[in-house]
Amino acid sequence: MLEQATSTFEIYPAIDLRAGRVVRLRQGDFAREQVYDDDPVGVAAGFVAQGARWIHVVDLDGAVAGDRRQSSVIGAIVDACAASTTAGSSAEPGARVQVAGGLRDADAIADALSAGAARVVLGTVAITAPDIVAAAIEAHGPDRIAVALDIRDGLAVGHGWVPGGPAVPVRPALERLAALGVGTFIVTAIARDGLLGGPDLDLLRDTVSATAAAIVASGGVASLEDLEAIRAIGCRGAVVGRAIYDGRFDVREAIGLSRPGRSPGPSTSR
Fold it and tell me: Is the Cα torsion angle 190, 194, 197, 199 positive or negative in sign?
């Protein structure tokens, strides 16, 4: 049974970039990297061909360094998504790209948006300088600014999840940022990220209940049933990475599940 199902639920296939390659980290640990592809542009075009309407792109190098490091690759991804055609819809070409990593001042935010990103996702700066988030919303509008709450041990952390970085309690941060006008939060359970152990549904329930803003789940998704559970508790979408790359299911299946009235059925096992 659905607890609080929403009719609007987006699937965000993830492309995490490090040194120009598509990688996945386990629990945000750069020493536990798995390389999946050397052609991120081709990966993005493939997701769009399967029906993706959004692509979630993270500049991992930028997240650690504090500035944009993958701008040219991200620009090529944006161009490829704009040129591709979403499966099953000749009237809706391409997909929108949301970009995260290394966006810590007004110029970086503006540059990413002017380069074609439909939305930027602010992480560290949302913790350390929420006034920059407020200014970005004022300058670009709430639909183009989202905030990442990357959570470890009950704290939202920044600086690419490196231990010892800035950290604040989740609920006060969520309430403060929502009051500033943030309408979308990407909530990641770091302890589950990249492990295929299932999402942290308790964490997601807490964040959904704490705000009227849209919550997009990230971390741990391993099956179509996981996506259904996330949708059922009221999340407005899910970022999916390793489960797609490892063949647990594909983007087309996830998109089909996210449509209202669809049931998960058995997970695809390959």
Answer: positive
Contact 169, 192 (CB under 8 A): no
The mean per-residue pLDDT over the stretch 1-21 comes to: 77
One-letter identity of residue 168: V
pLDDT by residue (tens digit) across 220-267?
999 999 999 999 999 999 999 999 999 999 999 999 986 655 544 444
Q: Which of 59, 150, 193, 250 is catalytic?
A: 150
Q: What is the DSSP letter of 112?
A: H
Contacts of 230 (CB under 8 A, 6+ apart): 199, 201, 204, 217, 221, 238
- Give me the residue spans of the domains in the chain: 10-258
Q: Which of 30, 117, 129, 24 is nearest to 68 (CA)?
A: 117
| Residues in Cβ contact with 106 at an 8 Å cutoff, skipping those fewer than 6 apart | 132, 135, 136, 139
What is the C-alpha to C-alpha distance for residues 199 and 182, in angstroms, rounded to an integer? 23
Active site residue 150: yes
Say which of 16, 59, 193, 250 is annotated catalytic.
16
What are 82-93's pLDDT values in tens digits? 987 555 544 455
- CATH 3.40.50.1170 is right for the domain spanning 10-258: no
Q: What is the pLDDT of residues 151-168, one digit of tens each?
A: 998 899 987 677 777 889
pTM exceeding the 0.85 threshold for the entire prediction = yes
16 given a catalytic annotation: yes
